[in-house]
Each structure stands twice: as C-alpha cells, then as structure tokens.
Amino acid sequence: MNKNIRIVFSFAILITLTACGTNEKKVIKISSPSKTIDLVITPAKEGLTIQLNYRGIPELTAETGNFIIEIEPGHGTHILDVKRSTTDESWNPVFGERHTIRNHYNQIEIELADTLTDAKRKTVVCRLYDEGLAFKVLFNKEYNNNKTLTSELTSFNFINDGEAWISNRAQSQIYKTNLSEIDEVSERPLVIKQSDNLYLALGEAALVDYARMKFRKDTVNPLSLYSELSGTVNLKQAEFRTPWRYVMVAESPAELLENNFFIENLNEPNQIADISWIKPGKIIREVTLTTQGGMATIDFAAKHNLQYVEFDAGWYGSESDEASDATTVTVDPNRSPG
Questions:
Q1: Which of 108, 128, 149, 285 could form a disulfide with 233 if both were Cys (CB 3.0 to 4.6 A apart)?
Q2: How far apart are CA 226 and CA 59, in angstroms?
Q3: Which of 69, 213, 218, 73 is nearest to 135 (CA)?
Q4: Of 129, 24, 33, residue with least CA distance to 81
C-alpha cells in the first residue's frame, strides 16, 4: 500500500495582466513539525514555485495568485526577505469535541518586492502543519491603499482523475463524481480521493470581509480546479489580506474529520471576553419568520429537548443590506409573508 504523496504549489502572484519576473535564484526549504511534509520554494517566471513533498509521490500542483487589482503598471517581483517562525501552543475552545487544541506549525513569510523599484509589494505566508498546508497573501498597505481586488485565479491541478464529493451551494445535496466530470461550481471544503489511502480536502479559513471562494473546473485542463470569488474585494476593508487557502492530507475520510482542529487553528481566536453565557445545545431552525411558525417551532423544541431555536436570516431586515440592524426585530418582508 503506497502512502506517499508530493504536492507542488506554483504561486503565480500578479497584480497586473503582465507576467512577473524574478531576479533571484534562491531555494527555500521548510518542514512540518514531525517532518512528514516538506516545502521546497524557488523563484519562478511568474512568482514562486512551492513544492510540497509528503513522503514522495506527486499528486497535486496548485497555482495561486494572479491577483488582479484594478489596472496598474507592473514590473514583476523578486524575493526581498524570508522570515521563519515556529509556534507550539495549546488553547481551550469555548465548546466542541476537544477540551484542548494544540496549534503546532512551522511558518515561512516570503516578502516580494517590485523588481524595478525594490518596493515591497506583498508577502506570501505558508504555514505547515503535519495535517496539511495553509497559505495566504498579505498586500502592502501603502501600495494597495484604496484598491479593489477584482479576481483571484488560484488553481489546483491534480495528477490523477480522482473521485470528488461535490456540493454546488451551502446545504445542497452532495454527490460523488470524478474530477474530470465536474460540470458546476463546487462548495468548500472539497474532499477528493486520489487513491485508496490518500484523501485531500481543499478549502479556506479566516474568511472575514473577503469574497467567498468556490471551485470551478478549468475548461482547458479537466483535472484542474480554479478558485472563483463571489465578488470583488475592498482590500482596505479586508485588512489587506486574503483568507487562508488550505490543503489537508490524510489517509482516510475519518482522519480528515479527526483533524478538523486544523481549520479551527487557522481561524482567528475568540474575541468575546465573557464566555460564561455560552452553553452548547441542540438547535432547530425556523424559516418562515412568522408568529405561527415561531410558536410551532418552540413547541417542537420543548417536546424534543432541543435547547435552541434559530430564526433564519431576515428577522433583522434584508440580509444583503449592510444597514440592517441585528439589535432590532425588523422582519424582511421579502422573507416572510408576515
């Protein structure tokens, strides 16, 4: 039984429609804490090539970048600086399966500068756990102030036509198909079986004030998926950073599930000072937003020992209107007959 994988990540990080050049031939290496995963990072024609080795066999390449930020002149990029760090800490979640979660990873930050002016343009952050790889891009605030990101063409290119479990929207049916047969946009996380003992999960974490990412098949390469954003991004509002994009690696679907703390570690820490009022429990959702529906749902919850009733989006006004105030009960007339 072959338990080996090598994943290659080629970062083509652009801010214009022109190709980026590099003027350094620097090789950078980093390993996960137990050294089961290794990264080899080298400059490439359009940014950085990041090769992920997991006990030796190639399975996936990912090209992330082509960040199109309006229209601006570009001169290419080169590596300006490399910073390394290691974190090994534990924290206690408010609720969940585990009382304590370990957050153990090695991290590398690669600063990219404008080839002509040597001004810092962006930083690629790679965080390497034993459970997988996460990466994000930090944009230079001065260089990108008041800019709008219109496209992010991160792609994941697979070696084998593996099986994939597809869901085209939240809460929709999940069905199994081959990568080459995907014919619609797919939600994340996207689980892919590359062999009997190799499973991958692709997704994003720490999504705040940034357009949601989904996956769509490349029309040219049937074994390639690229990220499709739900809209444009105000970089200042997004704090000049992308969410984490991640690839989890495991030998079974159960192991992927067991390692779900990986995503919790990537999200921001709890910001609520007083958590004494938070009590875990079972919940039922009420979707009609009517008095009759609410009373019926409460009666059902009481009868079946459910601790919470959740009223669907729209009880505070239109869910798509930033002016809606969740401290009031102002039912969206388009969501409820009254």
A1: 149
A2: 16
A3: 213
A4: 24
Burial of 80 per CB tally in 10 Å (0-12, 13-18, 19+)? middle
How far from each other are the two terminal CA atoms of the chain, in whole angstroms? 60
156-182 mean pLDDT: 90
Residue 282 has pLDDT above 90, yes or no: yes
Phi, psi of 249, deg, nearest 5: -130, 130
User: What is the 3-state secondary structure of the chain?
Assistant: CCCCEEEEEEEECCCCCCCCCCCCCCCEEEECCCCCCEEEEEEECCEEEEEEEEEEEEEEEEEEECEEECCCCCCCEEEEEEEEEEEEEEECCCCCCCCCEEEEEEEEEEEEEECCCCCEEEEEEEEEECCEEEEEEEECHHHHCCCEEEEECCEEEECCCCEEEECCCCCCCCEEEEHHHCCCCECCCEEEEEECCEEEEEEEECCCCCCCEEEEECCCCCCEEEEEECCCEECCCCCCECCEEEEEEECCHHHHHHCCHHHHHHCCCCCCCCCCCCCCCCEEEECCCCHHHHHHHHHHHHHCCCCEEEECCCECECCCCCCCCCCCCCCCCCCCCC
φ, ψ (nearest 5 deg) of residue 265: -65, -30
Cβ-contact 76, 21 below 8 angstroms: yes
- Indicate the length of the chain as a whole number: 338
What confidence category does residue 171 fall into, taking pLDDT thresholds of 50, 70 and 90? confident
pTM metric for this prediction: 0.82
Q: Return d(Cα 190, Cα 34) in angstroms, integer.
A: 26
Residue from 160, 198, 196, 202 nearest 179 by CA = 160
d(CA 24, CA 18): 19
| Contact assessment for residue 132 and residue 249, using Cβ atoms and an 8 Å cutoff | yes
